[in-house]
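Re: that backbone. Tokens:
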């Protein structure tokens, strides 16, 4: 991994302080228990990580943009309770912000329209463009302006090229994609997630991978932990797979919980200036 990763906010503010992040996340889960059961909280994470990927695909955005948005989404809910902030809004806002951070163009009206198009529930999607604009700044503040994200895709490709594992690139890629349906992006450095994905892909093809791993200057115990963590996603597919009925049930429960807040927000936003008078924000990122 490039030297600037170790100096980045990704490492210094999040991975180096992972115990602190998870202490906050555990506190938020306990706060949510009175409203959402533990399995519902986990389903919400998976469902809206997948929805972000689907929205990015429909918008013809690169996988990197979706991955950045998912990290924003998971970081946000590591420090905030679901009962206080609707995932149905945070997810499209995260993608809208990630597109800017990754220097892509995605109009707010497009992401809202596509969210409404794929929304599964017994009611219409309740948010509009003005809600996205309003929550964009709240999301940035919650992330403490740490918007530069490092991902495992580039290291994975480089490691495979260096080891002549050209056939493992396409095998490891979906494993990396699935890792974003878990908290791996909050727990582990991207380069180790990349190595773990290559190891799993090679093992699934009956390739001997141990000697390759031993030659790398890495913590083998930490790598073993990541391999076990990612492998568990496939041992229990329910961790990263959800069905249509589950999605609809979760959305209906979210609507029931947030209905009053949405009505109050509509009244408040109606008093704000129209979006045409809203100052435009341009992100110029630098570490």
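Recovered sequence:
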């Amino acid at each position: 991994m490039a030297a600037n990763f170790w100096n980045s906010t990704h490492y210094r503010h999040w991975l180096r302080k992972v115990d602190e992040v998870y202490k906050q996340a555990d506190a938020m889960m306990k706060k949510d228990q009175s409203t959402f059961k533990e399995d519902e909280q986990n389903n919400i994470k998976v469902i809206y990580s997948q929805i972000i990927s689907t929205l990015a695909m429909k918008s013809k955005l690169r996988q990197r943009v979706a991955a950045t948005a998912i990290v924003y989404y998971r970081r946000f809910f590591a420090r905030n309770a679901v009962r206080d902030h609707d995932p149905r809004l945070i997810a499209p806002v995260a993608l809208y912000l990630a597109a800017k951070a990754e220097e892509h163009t995605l109009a707010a009206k497009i992401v809202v329209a596509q969210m409404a198009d794929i929304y599964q529930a017994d009611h219409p999607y309740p948010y509009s463009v003005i809600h996205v604009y309003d929550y964009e700044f709240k999301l940035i503040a919650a992330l403490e302006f740490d918007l530069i994200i490092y991902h495992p895709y580039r290291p994975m490709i480089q490691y495979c090229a260096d080891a002549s594992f050209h056939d493992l690139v396409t095998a490891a890629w979906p494993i990396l994609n699935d890792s974003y349906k878990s908290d791996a992006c909050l727990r582990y450095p991207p380069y180790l997630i990349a190595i773990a994905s290559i190891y799993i892909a090679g093992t699934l093809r009956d390739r001997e991978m141990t000697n390759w791993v031993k030659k790398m200057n890495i913590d083998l115990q930490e790598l073993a932990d990541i391999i076990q963590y990612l492998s568990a996603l496939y041992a229990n597919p329910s961790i990263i797979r959800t069905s249509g009925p589950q999605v609809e049930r979760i959305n209906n429960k979210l609507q029931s919980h947030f209905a009053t807040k949405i009505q109050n927000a509509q009244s408040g936003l109606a008093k704000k200036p129209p979006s045409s008078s809203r100052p435009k924000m341009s992100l110029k990122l630098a570490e």
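The chain has a mean pLDDT of 89. Residues 196 and 228 are 9 Å apart (CA to CA).
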